[in-house]
Amino acid sequence: MKTLRNPALGNTLPIIGLIVVLLIIAACIARGFVSPGNILNLMRLAAPLGIICIGQTLVILSAGVDLSVGSVAILINIVAANLLQGEDARNPMALLACLAVAVAVGLVNGIAVAWVRINPFVMTLAMSSVVQGAALVYSGGAAGGAASPLVKYLGVGTLFGMPVAMLIWIV
Asked: Which helix (H) or strand (E) holds 98?
């Protein structure tokens, strides 16, 4: 039986075919789904996950796994919103604090996996729970703070009609 596999593409050809079929089905079900505005909106919404996936790809290429990424992203958003309080002047401080938190979590994961020899799956799964708990304690279980105008622009702004978040993802 002949398969759709192409040695240069690996398993991507069937995946691309599945995506095309799903897009056709979505276009038939929801008339405005393939409109330029909706496609740009989907790209803007997918950009943060796409940026995270770039880092996760590097982890996977090195034969690792990191299940704490989502929890760290949530904690960073909570910390950023609380530190920014809607003011652009606080951007550098919030950026440094968020980087410090992410690096600290990554350092603990790395030390535990590389030196203590804890299985990466187990370590990052446990760290995910720890980080979720830290986010709950830090936020008190309630949303607080506000994004600064610059952060809002990076998240939902447009440049030449394209979502800025999507352009950051592409770059």
From this structure: helix 91-114
